[in-house]
Structure formats: structure tokens, C-alpha cells
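Example record for the data management plan.
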Amino acid sequence: MELPRFSLAGKVALITGGSRGIGEATAVLFAQAGADVAVTSRKLPDLERVADLVRAEGRRAIAIEAHAGRMDGLQGIVDRTVEELGGLDVLVNNAGTSNYAPSMEMEERAWDAVMNLDLKGLFFLSQAAGRHMRDHGGGTIVNISSVDGVRPARTTPHYSIAKAGLIMATKCQAVEWAEHNIRVNCIAPGSIETRLYNANFALLPEEDRAAAKDASSRRVPQSRIGDPHEIADAALYFASDASSYVTGQTLVVDGGRLLV
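Corresponding structural encoding:
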């Protein structure tokens, strides 16, 4: 069955945090939907592996080694994507980080590390991509937030604040950029099988990690941890014409966790 409104044929997508997890799953799915894909993160060997997966789907791919939290490199990410793949139609802001830092003990450097990547870098990379999209007929931006941007996380408040800010940035840019045919939407994942999620258990003794992770999954109404491809599926909806009348929205993909 062909679903043309979910097609990305002829499109170029840029995915940050593209070397593993949600970014990897999104890159492969977008390639299957017909897009050429640029992936960026800080480790080139991991990016090249994902780029090879995209090429295996018959699409063009480039790997861009860059830090999405450093403002002086953001325009270069967009420029290289345009130069090597011929344009930029879809941006997926997936790069993110967190660290254990309760409010009473948090140091400024911990705050800055999360804010610069999860919010500030995302905003200004969207700006750079948005300017290109504005001048070339439009595009779509998909931001990856978190359920922690909807409810507070107890020991990572800076992460919750950044992800909440991301939800508002989505709304602000959606309102401003609609006149340029740019849609901006957001996904708020719950517990997804990624390195960042597993880091929640890293401070526990090794023998206790599996039990803690199992207990976490049982708090989800669907009684399981999500898979990265389930976020990629939502990203494809927002990136494609299937969501052509949707902008400024946040889709929670959490197995029902926020309901209980």
C-alpha cells in the first residue's frame, strides 16, 4: 500500500543527535520514505554508520561532525547540508543531554551544558534552517522534547526547564513562521530505549539496574519501554504532508505514562 502523503520523496532532512537511538531510527525511516539525509552529532564514526544505513535504502547521506550546542558552528551545519544535498526541507532537532543535578547542588556549568544543547542551540539552529526554508518555499521542523518538559523531573530540573522551553519555542516559531510556509511541531517522548534513558540507572549498583528499569516500565500503562522507531514514526507524520494542517503542537508519545 502506498501512502503518498507520508512520502518525503525529493526532500532533504537534517537530523541532530543522529548517531544512535531516536536520531538513527528517524534517519533510516526518512530514507525509507524517500528523503536524502544529513545526520550530525559529535562522533563521526557513529554518524558514518548511520549514513551507511541511509545509503543502503538507496538515498544520499552525509555525516556532519559538529556540536549542536555551540552557536558558532550552527550555520555551518545548515550550509553544508544545503551545499552537499542541494537543499533543506526538514529539520529534526533531536540532540539533547542531561545530567544529575538537583536544584540545591546544581553548578552553573551543569545548567549551561543542558541549556546550550537542549534549548539555545536548538533555537538558533532552527533559525538558521528557517531562514533557508523561508527563502526556498517553506519546510518543516520537528523538535524532540520530553514528558519531563510537561511534568518536573526531581533530580534534573534544568532538563525539565529546557524541555518545557522547547515546547514554548515550538509554539512561538510556529506562529511567526506560518506565513513562510514553515510548520514547527514537537514530540514529547516518555521512557524510550536510548542511552539517555538508561543513564537514569547508571548510578545504581549494576545488580540493581535491571530491577529498577523493570519497575520503571511497570509504571507505564502499556507496561513497557518505548522503542526509538515509535518516535521516528511520529516524526515522519510531522515532517510529511500528512500533517499539513498541523503546526505548533506537541504530541506526547509515552505509553500513557502522563495519565497516571
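Summary line stored alongside the record: The chain has one domain: 7-190+226-254.
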